[in-house]
Amino acid sequence: MDSDDEYVPNTRARGLTNAEGAYRWEDEYHRSWDVVQEDSGGSLAPAVNGIIDTAKRRKIKPMAPVHRGIIRNLVLVLDASLAMSDTDMRPTRFYSMISSASVFVTDFFSQNPISQLAIVVLRDGLAVLTSKLDGNPQTHLDNLAQLRKSQVSGQASLQNGLELANVLLSQTPQYNTREVLLVFGALMSNDPKPISQTIHKLVENKVRVKIIGLAAEVAICRQICTQTNMGESNSYFIALNEQHFQTLLSDSLTPIPVLKERESAAKSTDSAEPATAVRMGFPKRQLHSMSASLCACHQTLTKQGFFCPQCKAKVCTLPMTCPVCALTLIMSTHLARGYHHLFPLQPFNQTQGYKNPCFGCSVSLANRSQFECPKCHNIFCVDCDVFFHENLHNCAGCEVQNTDVQV
Amino acid sequence: MDSVDDTAAQLAKGVSYDEEIQSDSCSFLVVIIDLHSNGWLNKSQISLWKVLESLTVFLNAHLALNSSNELAVLGFNGLGARVLYSTTTAGKNADANDIANGIHLKGTMIRQFKKFDESVLSSIKAQIAEAKAKNVNGSTSVSGPLSLALSHLNRRIREKSSMRGHILIVSASGDDMGSKYIATMNTIFTAQKLGVPLDVANFGPPKSFLQQAAEFTQGSYLEFSEKDAEGLVHYFCSTFLVEPAVRKYVNMATKSNVDFSAVCFITKKILEIGYVCSVCLCIMQEIPEDNKCAVCHSQYE
Q1: 3-state helix, strand, coil in chain A (%, to 5)
Q2: What is the value of pTM for the model shown?
Q3: How far is CA A80 from CA A84, A94, A188, in A?
Q4: From CA A80, how far away is CA A78, in angstroms rounded?
Q5: Which of A128, A320, B143, B219 could form a disulfide with B183, with the two C-beta atoms 3.0–4.6 Å apart?
Q6: pLDDT class for A5, splitting at 50, 70, 90?
Q7: Cβ-nearest to A406 among B88, B138, B143
Q8: Can you list the positions of beta strands (E) in B16-132?
Q9: CA–CA separation, B44 vs B230, rounded Å?
Q10: Are A314 and A300 contacting, i.e. CB atoms less than 8 angstroms apart?
Q11: Strand partners, A278
Q12: Where in the cell is it found (chain B) (predicted)?
């Protein structure tokens, strides 16, 4: 047996400790109302506005332009064991998880249009493939709706779930990412064999596992996450409540950075893991043709569709792999949806003392927090700042000014 | 007419009663006017002033439709984009300034409309004159004014839950994208997410990206040639005036055959089958001879 197989107890669990490494319950008691200070006029408004603004901006994270795996393959493993019938999330953990997962699937495909997803369910000690690895969000949503009607039962098996995910992911091409996102409500796992063997397989196959626990921290989950992420321990989380759970899920929408070792290997030698140019088709849409014809994907009569440029087969929706010639069919706009991950907007710096209204929405900035774009030096309000970084991914100031003017 | 009756009957019966259509729902219209001087010089197209005549009638109609409707007018040319008029800031000016500003009412003219017309037209003239004085010939992408328009809409929609937004782009110049492909696509996706339809009134050569923008956001894309000059008001009011909330009940005039073709990043040719870099997602017609991505310089297998 090798040393990795032994269970190494984590004496000071992350997430429970503060900056000094002490447990939260060993901390001094903080009175949250002491933080709010009155200004010279005795008003609380500036302090309260400050707190609100900080909360709004919490989601904006500095995004260094790193090499990210844009084409993703993700297996969503959902726990449907008896532990999921707990009612700490309303109505039960299971229903809450299915609702959040449906939102996640929709968002996942809008942000990662050429990626693929599969759904695996853990119940009765088995791992059941509920939704095949596929790029069409609607089939996954339908399958999730079906799953909603089923009951939770038995124990969960981490090993069976991960083994199945590993098999699914091992068929995918090398240039794609291989990810597992596991929602685990149980505190125990019913495994047929030592799970360490499975972890080795996952590491070998370069599968990266992220686990969101719904109950309490489980040591083996942390071990799985750490080992499959090259020792980085930032992929195991415990959801505190429904909202926190949704936040944790939505964190997985952004493509993960390619791991350092892989990246440096790719740079140093071209044998390691070079990029690939993938052959793809950009089909034309045919609208309202005179006669209906069968589509190659569902074998139904339709009057409109997209024609594969290689084999002229008709498909109903994009993106899709052509059912006849296996060419990946997409729209150029699907690719464009992924670009903002590659060219992220720089975070704005907080400033003060400007009299002009917000450059974006013309709201008055008096007594409000102000943010400056490091590139165009225009001043924005907190709402525009959040809007630019979370939705638009453009800075209005840079777009308006940065022109190719020939004077 | 039958379809209109059907819809009315449906609404009356409450079969598809929509909460969006309420008496207090109002809309915020942002008009983006292309003021590139070279865009309007072509003899075979409608002149800018002719368009503005119809446009002001349309904008007055928008304001008259509902007292809580709001409006912003943005202009863009080689110098960049700017807000020419906005009801949120303009409403505060007292009427007493009117006489000082030289605004005189004729006949049965309504003061607000006259005031609005004057201020929009004078700021449009000012922006054109400025570009002329500085001798600016370059062009800017529509992504700038669109980003600005969306941040205005984002604020108003957030502040007032009954507010619905829509955007009208009055476009003329030849190049609709410039070098800002990613930024423009970002604005289109954001409009889609906010539920803001992008309408396009195109007076210049056909533009595939604006067409895609309208298609994605359920807006209408209309091209106008010289023969439409007399009926512009009718086009504007029957298509672009329709509020976002009622659009699903109306057969909108639009050009439906949208071209989603991809363009090679290197040769700029339109492709049907191409190669996509797995690292940076750039589209290429052929794999370059040195086996390296032209954009991100990744080495290929």
Answers
A1: 35, 20, 45
A2: 0.79
A3: 6, 7, 13
A4: 6
A5: B143
A6: very low
A7: B138
A8: 26-34, 70-77, 80-86
A9: 15
A10: no
A11: B276
A12: Nucleus
Q: Which domain holds residue A133?
A: 72-255
- Assess whether A231 and A167 both reside in one domain: yes
Q: Among the listed ranges A235-239, A306-310, A329-333, B12-16, which one has the minimum average pLDDT value?
A: B12-16
Q: Which two tokens stand for residue A112?
A: 């990662």
Q: Which residues of B touch A395 (CB under 8 A)?
A: 147
Does any domain span residue A266? no
Q: Within an 8 Å CB–CB cutoff, is residue B194 touching chain A? A: yes
* Mean pLDDT, rounded, for B233-240: 89
Q: Are residues A202 and A302 in the same domain?
A: no
First to last CA, chain A: 73
Surface of B (258-277) touching A: CB under 8 A: 258-263, 271-277
The model's confidence at residue B178, banded by pLDDT at 50, 70 and 90, is low
CB A282 to CB B272 under 8 A?
Answer: yes
Max intra-chain CA distance, chain A: 77
- Tell me which range, A61-70, A223-232, B238-247, is most confidently predicted by mean pLDDT: A223-232
From chain B, the residues in CB contact with A310 under 8 A are 273
Instruction: Using CB atoms, pick whichever of B155, B276, B300 lies closest to residue A363.
Output: B155
Q: What is the pLDDT of residues B241-259, one digit of tens each?
A: 888 778 878 777 766 666 6
Say if residue A294 is in the same domain as residue A221.
no
CA-nearest residue to A394 within chain B is: B183
**What confidence tier does B1 reach under pLDDT thresholds 50, 70, 90?**
very low
User: Is it the case that residue B99 has pLDDT exceeding 60?
Assistant: no
The residue behind tokens 């992008």 is B198
The band of A405, judged by pLDDT with boundaries at 50, 70 and 90, is: very low
pLDDT of residue A126: 94
Neighbours of A43 (CB within 10 A): 11
**Complex prediction ipTM:** 0.83
| Contact call for B80 and A403, based on CB within 8 A | yes
Selecting from B151, B257, B275 the residue whose C-beta is nearest the C-beta of A387 gives B151
- Report the amino acid identity of residue B301: E
* B81, pLDDT greater than 90: no
Closest of B276, B285, B280, B275 to residue B295, by C-alpha: B280
Contacts with B258 from chain A: Cβ below 8 Å: 285
Q: Say if CB B176 and CB B200 are below 8 A apart.
A: no
User: Which CATH superfamily is B7-249 part of?
Assistant: von Willebrand factor, type A domain (3.40.50.410)
Tell me, yes or no, whether A279 lies in a domain. Answer: no
- Give the closest-approach CA distance of A342 to chain B in angstroms: 7
pLDDT at A406: 34
Interchain contact, B147 vs A361, CB within 8 Å: no
| Cβ <8 Å between B279 and A275 | yes
Shortest Cα–Cα distance, A273 to chain B (Å): 8
Say yes or no for a CB contact (<8 Å) between B138 and A71: no
Domain match, A155 and A205 both: yes
User: Do A159 and A248 belong together in one domain?
Assistant: yes
- How far is the C-alpha of B222 from the C-alpha of B219, rounded, in Å? 10
Q: What SS3 class is residue A60?
A: coil
pLDDT confidence of A8, banded at 50, 70, 90?
very low
Of A327, A394, A404, the CB nearest to B187: A394
CB contact under 8 A, A67 and B279: yes
* Count of residues making up chain A: 407
Using CB atoms, which residue from A266, A363, A400 is nearest to B80?
Answer: A400
Q: What's the pLDDT score for residue A131?
A: 92
Q: What is the CATH number of the domain that holds A129?
A: 3.40.50.410
| Lowest mean pLDDT across A342-351, B95-104, B217-226 | B95-104
Residues A243 and A125 in one domain: yes
Q: Give B-chain residues touching A399 at CB under 8 angstroms.
A: 81, 141, 143-144, 146-148, 180, 183
